[in-house]
From TrEMBL:
Xref: Pfam families: GGDEF (PF00990)
Protein name: diguanylate cyclase
Highest taxon of the lineage: Bacteria
Known catalytic reactions: 2 GTP = 3',3'-c-di-GMP + 2 diphosphate
Enzyme Commission number: 2.7.7.65
Organism of origin: Silvimonas iriomotensis
Top EC class for this record: transferase
Entries under NCBIfam families matching the protein: GGDEF
Residue ranges constituting the GGDEF domain according to the UniProt record: 251-383
Keywords: Membrane, Transmembrane, Transmembrane helix
Database matches in Gene3D superfamilies: 3.30.70.270
Length: 394
C-alpha cells in the first residue's frame, strides 16, 4: 500500500517542478510570481519537517511543519492578491498564522487532541482556499482568456469543500488515527489531497500568468509604439468587427478621420522630437475624452482614425466638435514657450451597405474639404444618394 513517505516524496517532486517553472516566469515581472515561488519553497520545507514524524520529534512536524505549510498557503494567497493588483493584508495574515501555530502547539503539548488539531488545520486551510478562490474569480480580467482563472479559482473552492468534509469527519469520528501510523484509505486520501494543494494551485497560477503574458504581447503588437493608439492593422480589424456587430444589432456607427494641422511645419521648425511629443499629447487628449466603445488608431504620420460605435449622427458630430475644441484649447510646453496646435476632421456616418473602405473614402474626402476650407474644423460627409436612371432608360 502507498505510504505517507511516498506521497510526501511525490509532492516534493511536484513542488520542485513548479519551482522551476515559476523561476522561468520571474523575468516577466508579473506581480504575484515571487509570492507563488516562495509558497512552493515553504511547502518543500514543510514536507521535510513531516518526514521527521517517525523519528519521535513531535515539535518538528506538528508545530514547525504545519506553521510552514500555513505560511505557504498564506503566501500563495498574497500572490493572488498581488496578481489581481490588490493590496495584501500582511498583518492579518501574520496574526492568523501565529494564532494558528499556537493553537496547534497547545493541542499537542498541553492537551494531546489529534482530531481537534485536524479540525483546526482544516478550518484554517479551507478558509484560505475560499479567499483564494474568491479573489481569483471575483477579479478575473474582462478583456482576455479566463481559463486559468476559472481552473485555479474553481480548484481552490473544491479544496475548501474537501477540507470541510475532513473537518466534519474528524469531528464525528474521534476514532480516526494519526495519518503516519494509520495507512487507511481515508487517511491516505486526505494526505494526498493536502499534498496537491500548492502544486495544483501553482499549476493554475502558471496558466494565469501565461494568459497575462500572451495578452500583453498581443497588446504590444497591436499598439503604435509612440502614441499607444491602435496600429493601422489593429484599427482596421477592430473597426471591421464593430461594424459587423452594428450590422446585427442595428447600432449606428460613424468614422472620424483626424489630421493635426500643419504638422510638417512643426517638425521643420522644432524638430522630430517635438513632433513626437505633439503626437503623444494629441492621443492623450483623445483617450481622455473618448468613450469605452470608441476605437482610436494611428493610420500613418499625423493622421488618426476614430470609430464611434453606437453614436447617432448628432452625437458623433457633437463628440467630434468637442474633441476639436479640446485640442484647440490645449497648450503644451516647447522649450521655454507654451505652444498650441489644431486639428481637422472628416466625419462620415455609416450605412449598412457600405464597406469600411467605402466609409473611409467618404471620411477622407470630408477631411480634405476641412483642410481646403481653412483647417481647424470638422466637415461631415453627406451620404451618397442612390442614382436615378434617366427617363429614357426606365
Amino acid at each position: 500500500m502507498t505510504s505517507p513517505a511516498f506521497l510526501i516524496a511525490v509532492t516534493a517532486l511536484l513542488n520542485f517542478m513548479m519551482l522551476l517553472v515559476l523561476m522561468s516566469l520571474r523575468r516577466s515581472g508579473l506581480p504575484g510570481v515571487r509570492e507563488w515561488l516562495w509558497a512552493n519553497v515553504l511547502e518543500l520545507a514543510a514536507l521535510g519537517c513531516y518526514l521527521a514524524s517517525p523519528l519521535g520529534f513531535a515539535f518538528i512536524p506538528i508545530v514547525l511543519g504545519n506553521a510552514l505549510l500555513g505560511a505557504a498557503i498564506c503566501m500563495f494567497y498574497a500572490g493572488c492578491r498581488r496578481f489581481a493588483q490588490l493590496s495584501v493584508p500582511v498583518r492579518p495574515l501574520l496574526i492568523s498564522l501565529v494564532v494558528y501555530t499556537i493553537i496547534l502547539g497547545a493541542l499537542r503539548f498541553y492537551v494531546d487532541y489529534f482530531n481537534l488539531r485536524v479540525v483546526v488545520t482544516s478550518i484554517y486551510h479551507g478558509t484560505l482556499d475560499v479567499m483564494i478562490g474568491y479573489t481569483i474569480l471575483r477579479h478575473h480580467p474582462k478583456t482576455r482568456s479566463t481559463h486559468g482563472h476559472d481552473f485555479t479559482g474553481g480548484f481552490a473552492l473544491v479544496l475548501a469543500l474537501a477540507y470541510l468534509a475532513r473537518c466534519v469527519l474528524y469531528l464525528l469520528h474521534p476514532e480516526l488515527k494519526y495519518w503516519f501510523t494509520d495507512y487507511s484509505a481515508l487517511n491516505l486520501t486526505f494526505l494526498a489531497l493536502g499534498a496537491v494543494v500548492i502544486p495544483g494551485l501553482t499549476m493554475g497560477a502558471v496558466v494565469m500568468a501565461h494568459d497575462a503574458i500572451l495578452t500583453a504581447s498581443e497588446e504590444v503588437a497591436s499598439r503604435d509604439f509612440l502614441t499607444n493608439a491602435l496600429s493601422r492593422k489593429a484599427f482596421i480589424e477592430q473597426a471591421t468587427r464593430q461594424m459587423a456587430t452594428a450590422a446585427r444589432s442595428g447600432r449606428p456607427v460613424s468614422l472620424l478621420l483626424l489630421d493635426i494641422d500643419h504638422f510638417k511645419s512643426i517638425n521643420d521648425r522644432f524638430g522630430h522630437a517635438v513632433g513626437d511629443e505633439v503626437l503623444r499629447d494629441f492621443t492623450l487628449i483623445m483617450h481622455s475624452a473618448l468613450r469605452a466603445a470608441d476605437c482610436l488608431g494611428r493610420l500613418g504620420g499625423e493622421e488618426f482614425g476614430l470609430l464611434l460605435y453606437g453614436a447617432s449622427p448628432a452625437e458623433a458630430r457633437s463628440i467630434s466638435e468637442r474633441l476639436r475644441a479640446l485640442v484647440e484649447a490645449n497648450t503644451m510646453r516647447i522649450g521655454d514657450n507654451l505652444a498650441s496646435y489644431t486639428m481637422s476632421g472628416g466625419l462620415a456616418h455609416w450605412s449598412v451597405e457600405e464597406s469600411l473602405q467605402e466609409l473611409t473614402l467618404r471620411a477622407d474626402t470630408a477631411l480634405y474639404q476641412a483642410k481646403d476650407a481653412g483647417r481647424n474644423r470638422i466637415v461631415v460627409s453627406q451620404p451618397t444618394a442612390p442614382t436615378t436612371p434617366p427617363e429614357h432608360e426606365r
